[in-house]
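Researcher: Here's the sequence for the chain we discussed earlier.
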Amino acid sequence: MHSSLIPPDFDQTQDAAWDQVRAVPGFLTEREARFLMLVAACAPTSGPILEIGSFKGRSTVALGFVAKHYGFGPVIAVDPHTSPSETDPNLRGQATSYNDFLANIQRAGVADIVEPQRMFSRDYAPHAPRALRVLWIDGDHTLQGVREDVTLFKPHLQPGAFIVMHDVLGTFPGSLRVFCEDILDSDDFGPAGFCGSIGWAQYLPSEGAKYRHSRQRLAFLARQLLKVVDSKRGLTGLNKLWYKLWRPLVPHRRVQPERWVAHVVTNGH
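Model: Thanks. This is the structure I predict for it:
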């Protein structure tokens, strides 16, 4: 096992980070937030973290707290902080989430490591660093929006880096379909899995073929949910029964850090 990749104080750091994250409005669950912190702390490569979709800063605080504590950074947070997409959070009468975002990262003590980029991800892509260690995608959840983010920013991943996507095991067909087709079906990626609604994979273009079988198994299970999310009828009737049948079969329970680190490729660590 490669448990040495896990910082010795990670448990305490994760708890302290969650105390800050839980105070920020948003849709990231505790299970998902703690997994995101694990990825940020243990990705076995260097470079900044890029977040697409910040809303009011819940995931930004999770990533920023870990990056600051361990001397990583920066966390680049890309979000126009408006609601142009049908899948964006409801701002409930606000013109923007930007002021709340700034207040929340300031309150959590991570404003000095977070670099806000108030724009659409497609506009930021030409300026993005070429060597990312973590790419967190939680922006436009439409098929076009998610595919565009993966296509634009995948070339910026370093070998060994992680792509992490929110709401893959939710009811957004774009997120689920793109994760299955562009990530799990691609030999550019190695180890992969789910945690809560998160889908994750490690970028290993020279070794991904070795993990094809395990990725295909995950893709087969996850694709069963497309029948529900593509129907546009929501979780009602037979759709609800099908969803309740198949979603538990997709392994997405809380991740144990030691087991997860032993599973991923650690580039000599």
